[in-house]
């Protein structure tokens, strides 16, 4: 590990090494801030490493996170301290002194190779942190653990000398001691997550007593390729394949009984759906899946579509009820669930082979302790208290919070908060210290010019991901026969640290000068393997990846022979291509550090302020004539804060800020360039004068529209209004409202329909907010809320409980049978079916409030997507680069998205994204030069006939005829599309990385000798 | 009779079709293994020589897959690619090879389903056309070679 200066002004302490902590640490390190990452566990990774797959893409978790884990240890600005806790804190923001206590590991991290000998011989005293009790995997915590090393439980060890002898690396340190150090840090990020509820405390579900009752996480482990059953789904009691599996939602959450918590854990509906879908994917009609739920809370971006897919495509049975109990069936191994539904009177019982309890988050006892040590406030649920308008700020200046320790949330929301916390924490560090030259950590590049190709082929099995679909060993044997291949081997999890180290060793030992990796998509992993080649002293362009996972294993999962044959071809093609590859040099340009923020709403203004405060020049362009966006018309949030006052303060700060230039009435008309060197043209003001802005990064904060669908007499009857209208009316004319006797609200108006399939996320909270304010004004008012699923996720469940306590009546309706609304003079009559009474009801209301939610500003996002070449979702929101791990980055480098342009969300959630975007951008702009990569067109002057075809073909007008009368292409300006190379009649132009020779070699590899 | 399994080369733009193909994998959509992907930075990089070479080497079908019209990452690469495909189709017709063996398709990065359905449809289309006549000739040549040596 590199030497870290222990300088108070430059280091941020990140407590907790789950995805949130890692993300915060990585963002800070990208911005060249030093990070001290401590985790009380022996390896970082947190909860996510124990999951099998993640929704909504059903990607393998470890595949997505493991490059980040190894990067977490790799980054030269990150110092990792496992087995470490914070035991004392003194000082103030900008100069804290923190005491860290590290438990002895009894293993020298520099020597341990994670060979596993110690664990094989003395399993009782070697810790591997399985995270699960009675079904522990017999491996390390997960295959790609970081640090890649075991740890010893000395107390459990009976024969220390024998244990020491077992280690071939001599890594066991018998006299290792608990260590205490003090460090000075400038700011702190708390990312300690939470624990999962232990349902053994609920006696009616029998968890811990009956082996076939498992938690969601235990089910993940059973399904996971790195889990205790190596991914074979078996009933724990007898190892038989289950035929019927049930999920019970809200186990220990949303309850009022002993051991229950009142809040909603926000993620369990999605993970239960995911587990059921993955189960169905693997076993199709051989297995029945049933989910018992109260409200299906699929409120995230595109999550509703996932729910619909679960029902329609996968035939997952949904039963709306809270089951009474689980008891073993006297006849055998099955479990019997007793439940009552609206449709059937009396109890129903049903047998299942396995029951999965969807348990939610609980704050860990040590978090409460830690909060005391740090001197920060907790909320009533013992999660870290944050501010609604500053969602990652704790009660103590200089300490920030992200992820589940702040409240239940899923991975993308955690990532957003992590980037936001990184942005906020970086403010306390001293910039000047970071102009130090970075020392080059790579060895010099080996000159391979003139050497005959010596190709090494490494084929990943990726757990079961690749190995489960094809014969990896056959691929390796076959590739050893290909021309120029001097070495071929299985690489296991090729992206894991150990496999990468082995690849580097092989490159050296076998004197390889070209590498082929049979792995997942180069889109996600090319960078990682390229870096590994560079570390091994090879030019990074001497690599070719054969995409045998995303484009083979995942496509032909059910046809092993076919997948194996195709895998061989794909590797053959890659071998042919890499034999033709040569070393390339990358080009650089100076970085423009100004930022363009599009959209002057809450998200845009917060991004601008966060960036402006850090010294970046910001252009804040707003399409309309005023700042404030949609939030400017909102009066109160659920917590009761005055939103108008907040927005007015924001506008004032933005307008007074030295680093922010506000441009109103600005419409984007053209765009060109690359990250660090963009040019965007605007037409500004009523005169539409043209202005071009040069900038290094772009924030999309263009917001969404308040939906006003033509339904339920909206716009045609004055008693019918949206929740947004009602919000205003409550503040503006409370006297008028006081006299209302009856209010009806209808949820999901214009959302979760065929035209707009997604959930608007905010409407349930908004309806409850308004219902509470109405009953504040007139406690006698009868308020009906007609809903489909109440989605008051997280702590907003408390408000839902409060509304019910006050007598607000919640009546569910089905999508197929919407309420009927008719005008009745000044009033409206609402007819609906009451599912509990099982009969139609009719209510005469003074006012009908429609929860219409938000829809994408389709016209704006379409225009911008066309100008900037951005991706959009089907419903017109901007589509981020990676829904889990890069929720703020667009796939076009240098573009970031915040606020409702991403998806419907609350003000607090928009602010977190806005600050998160600023955190991402500080990383991008911390570099002084732009790396242009090596994909540029080159002209062979001897072949050039000066025909001007390239000059005319180039979309960017880069080629020109130089003084020597041949075409010249400036590598700094070339975008690397290759159009000129394809058009050049003399074949005088080649595009680096995609020359004709490797493309032809691929074709030959695929089509060699048909006969 | 054994079903004819054509060999199909798909030149896929990194920014759209290649990503869509990855997406199809993520969604576990099944499409024929006949389709083999060659990644290019832009469909505008696909040279008529690449298309012809693939057919000459015995591919039964060639797909050029770029971004939706107006969405090209490099402004106009897909338009140029479409023009070139039309040109090569004309050439194919002249030399007596079915122009339907070559096709230009467009999609966005998010269209995993579209990628899979195009792969299915195109494979079916080529299957109906039967083997590439060039491949048959090459096969004949390969079989004739030893005889030629004797002479």
Automatic annotation (TrEMBL), chain A:
GO terms for molecular function: 4 iron, 4 sulfur cluster binding; metal ion binding; oxidoreductase activity. The keyword Magnesium does not apply. It comes from the Bacteria. Residues 103-131, 148-177, 935-964, 965-994 form the 4Fe-4S ferredoxin-type domain. Its cofactor is FAD. The keyword 4Fe-4S applies. Keywords: 4Fe-4S, FAD, Flavoprotein, Iron, Iron-sulfur, Metal-binding, Oxidoreductase. Belongs to the HdrA family. PANTHER family: COB--COM HETERODISULFIDE REDUCTASE IRON-SULFUR SUBUNIT A, FERREDOXIN:COB-COM HETERODISULFIDE REDUCTASE SUBUNIT A. This is FAD-dependent oxidoreductase. The lineage of its organism: Bacteria, Pseudomonadati, Thermodesulfobacteriota, Desulfobacteria, Desulfobacterales.
